[in-house]
# Entry
Amino acid sequence: MELLKQRIKKDGKVRSGNVLKVDSFLNHQMDISLFEAIGKEFKRRFADCPINKILTIESSGIGIACIAAQSFGVPVVFAKKNTTKNIDGAVYSAQIESFTHGRIYNVIVAREFLSPDDNVLIIDDFLANGKALIGLSQIVKKSGANLCGAGIVIEKGFQNGGKQLREEGMRIESLAIIKSMTDDGEIEFE
Ligand code: 5GP
# Structure
């Protein structure tokens, strides 16, 4: 998606540890007209799927998932990062190691919001090592719902999550795939 790539080139900031900061339009301040274009692009790419629910993870996926959901006309469910260890039977849960914080979160979705009748699209802001996508897809599997695929805003193609998950058969549509980025801010796309 050319508009997005241009914006990443213009406003993205490369940080140590292979982290790309996009706080001025995606992760802190949010450019809603860009989000609308992103949502329409996800809708175009997944037009062949009977998606009736979008699943994301708090917190940075929520904004983009909500605007995309307007294009699909479906509700958004977000997996919550749960701090308590006692999980009752009313939730599906998975463990996700955070790329940016390095810690492991238990994430949960209430059973009442995902069922075998659902056709789910996962949406997230970034794809790096794939841990968030794996955890969310485990939750979808536990619920018996059908996973239509994943829509990712920015994939860091030089990290292995996308390759691994595609090889395992997951449909992933990434709107910008970064081939390489250097400490002095050079960003190249696939
Ligand atoms: P993964 O689970 O694929 O390793 O990482 C994806 C998650 O980590 C995303 O939900 C995103 O919030 C965060 N993340 C991974 N890489 C980056 C990055 O370069 N920049 C930002 N801002 N977030 C990232």
User: Anything to note?
Assistant: The CA atoms of residues 111 and 124 lie 21 Å apart. Residues 19-21, 27, 60, 99-100, 124-132, 161 surround guanosine-5'-monophosphate (CB under 6 Å). Strands lie at 13-15, 19-21, 53-57, 76-82, 91-97, 104-110, 119-127, 146-156, 172-181, 187-189.
